[in-house]
C-alpha cells in the first residue's frame, strides 16, 4: 500500500515518459511488420511457391505476422494505461494535498508521514494554558484531529484502491493467446487501454462465480469491494461490468448476495451488503440519463413536455445504447422466476414451500440499496412493472409476510411499491411521474389510488385435517413506498417528516388536488388505506394556508359546492388546491384515525391562525380584525368538528386518543416557526411576544382537550363541547395581550364572542358532513 510520503514525493512524470516509449515500441513493431510482410510472409504468395510446403509456410508465417500486429495493439494499450494511471494519480494526489492544506488552515499539523496533530504553536501562552486545563476543549480538539486524520487516511486509501486497479489492468493487458507450441503466450491482440474495463472484467468473473454458488475466497470478495469503491461513479466501469453480467446474471448475483448476507454466511453480512450496495450504485450510474437543458442552459424538469422531447431525442443517440438495451432485457427477465432463500424458506412445510420470486422483485430490492438513480430510469422501471402486473395481477403474490415487523422488510416483495420508494428520493422525479396534468401521470395516480390490487400476500387457514388457502391480504407495509412518493411529489421535499409551509408548483398542487378528490370518489378518504395516513398528514401541514381558506371559505377561489372537484391554480404565493370542503373534512377525518398525526395537522392550523392574527397591522380596521378572527375560528371549528366526531363517536378509547392527539399537538410547539410561509406577503413574523402568546395559548388548549375527553360521550356533551370554544377564546385573548390590550376589556370580549360564534359554525358544518356520511 502506498504511504502518505510516497504519494506526495513520487515522480509521476515517469509514467508519461514510459507511455511515450511504449508508443515508440508500437511504431517499431509496425516497421517490423512491414518488413516481415514484404520479405518473409510475401514469399508464400509468389506463384513459384506452391504445394503443401507453401501452405505450411503461409500458415506459420501468418501467425508471426499476426503477432507483430498484436504486439502493436498491446504496446499502444500499455501506453494508454500508463497515461490513464498518470491522470488518476495526479488527481488523487491533488485531493490529498488539498486535505492536508485544509487541515493546516484549521489549526492542524501534518507530519511527513501523514500524522495529524493539533498545532499548539499557533496558540498564545494563555490559550495553551486554558487548553491544558479545559477537558471540553481537549475533547473538541481530539475529535477535530480524528476527523482530519480520517479524511487524510481516506485519501491515501483511495490511492491504494486505484493502485490495485492499475495492477489488475497491467496483469490482464499482457495475457495473450496460447500459441499451441508450448512457448510463452503470444501478444494480446485484444488489449484495451482502459483500466476501468479490465477491472470490470475481473469483477464480472468474480460475480459470475458468486451467482453460480461457487466458493469464492475472501480475497476475491475484498477485490469486489475495492473495485466498487475505486470505480464509484464511473460510467465506463459500470456499463462494462453490467453489460458483461447482463440483467439475468445481475439478478442472480444480487439474489445470491442476499442469501449469503441473511442466511448462509451471516457473520460476513456487512461484506455482502457493501458489495450489493456497490452493485446498486453501479446500476444507477450505468443507467443515468443526462440532465437536459433548454437553449438558455436552464434545467428541464422531469416529466415536462420539453424534457420528454429532449429525452426522446437522446434515446436515438449512441449514448443511450446501453440504457435501451438494458431496459429491454429487464422487461424480458422481469417476470422470470428466481430462487431467493427469504421466499423459498419462508414457509417450511405446505403451501409456499420452495416458492420463487420474480425478477422485478429482485431488481426493486437491489435498487433500494443504491443512490442517485435518474428519475427517468426509475419511472420507466415502475411503468414496466405496472404493465407486467396488469397482464397478471397475481404475479407478485407470495405466501408469508415480508415487512420489517416480520424480519424480511429488506425484500421488496411488492416491486412497484419498492420502486416508488426509490422514486421518492428525488422529489422532482416523483412529481413528474404522478402529475395528473399529463395523461400518463393521471393514469398512474388513478391506478395507484383506486384501481391497483394491493393484496399480494397469500394466506392459509388451518382446517380439520389440512390447511386450506384463504383470501389474499395486504402486507403490513403496503403503500409505504407510494406514500413516500406521494409526499415527495406534492411537497417537493424528502418524505418522512412535517414540512414547512412553502410555495408549491402547479404539478405538486395538482397531485394533491387529484389525490383528495380520488380518495373521496372511491370512499377511502375517511378510512385511509394502510400507510397513507401519515404521509397525507405530512403533506397537509405544508398546505395549511390552503386548508385554512377552504375551511374558512372567506376566499371564493377556494370555495366549491359539496362533492365537486376543482383545479389547482396559482398566484404570487405559488400554486394552491381547491377541493370541496366536505372532501377535505373527510380526509381530515381519515388522518384523525392516527391521533398523533392529526395533532400535528391541528397544531399547524393553530400556528397558522396565530400567524395570521400576528400579521395584522397595529392600526387595522375593526372590520378587518373581525373578518380575520372569523376566518381563523371557522377553520379551527372544522378541525374540532373532526375531533368531536371521534371522541363522541364511541369508536375509540377516547382518553387514549386524546392523549396521543395532545402528544402530536405538544411536539409541534418546538416547530412553530416552520409553519410560516416563505415569500407570502400577507403574513409577517410573529415576533417574540406573539410567539410567547402562542405557547401559552397551546398550553391552555392541551389542558382543555384532555379534560373534555374524560366527559361522558353523549349527544348532549357534543352540544356543550367547550374545549374548542376555549381555544378560540385563548387565541383571541393571547393575541390581544400581545398587542397590549386588556384581556378583560369589552373590546377583547367582543372579538371572543365573534370568534366563538364562527367556531361553532365551522365545527357544526364539519360534523354535519361526517354524520351525513355514516
From TrEMBL:
Residues 125-140 have a biased composition (Basic and acidic residues). It comes from the Bacteria. Residues 116-140 are annotated as: Disordered. This is AG2 protein. The lineage of its organism: Bacteria, Bacillati, Actinomycetota, Actinomycetes, Kitasatosporales.
